[in-house]
Here is the input.
Amino acid sequence: MSTIIYPSPIFGPVHSRRLGVSLGINLLPGDGKACTFDCIYCECGFNADHRPKQKLPTREQVALALEDKLRDMQQNGPTPDVLTFAGNGEPTSHPHFPEIMDDTLRLRDQYFPNAKVSVLSNATFAHRQAVHDALMRVDNNIQKLDTVNPTYINKVDRPTGPYDVRRIVESLKAFNGHVIIQTMFLKGTTGGYNVDNTGDEYVLPWLEAVKYIQPREVMIYTIDRETPDHNLLKATHEELDSIRDRVIAAGIPCTASY
Here is the structure.
């Protein structure tokens, strides 16, 4: 099984389908995966297969490593389009996420003031005030909402703790438009369960939630790399385009990545 475990606390830069030249900031250990979701499509594999033994990087370690890398990129290139909090799990689960964000914004302004700061999150901590406040300061606050169907969430996103999609939607609404919704559309099966969320059964309730949240933008995408569950299939260009057009028709900018 091919999986990607990212170095910590800094990796890349890599080329992102949606963000461009992206320098990764991984607030999880570099020897495994620790996430509040255990998605069947995660490029990092299943949580149980990659339990980390190392500790979380400290705030000081993140700041030192980030400054070293930014200094190197300033001297040798390439110029980053974005500094992206991502990696081996949920970045906002780090207990010092707000303070690390302070450091990151300061270093961004010092070395590459035109670069954006992005966070890829599954929204499980977005209800926490300190996390909410930190996310309000980033350029691209990208939050996952694959569906509003609880059964589907438990089969596909597989939260590792309590997860109330209604509370998630309210926490996304609380950003008052300073949020980008990211949604995975896919097909196939897992354990005999049909995971196709491209039809009206899933798209229409999800679209109503999106309209309620009123995000700045919606990013829809499909699987691009090998997945730990091998019974999954990509959504088609036509399916993604149809969903994208519905979001745009609702007055919300939307992009589709294939």
Summary: Residues 170 and 187 are 28 Å apart (CA to CA). DSSP finds seven helices and eleven strands in the chain.
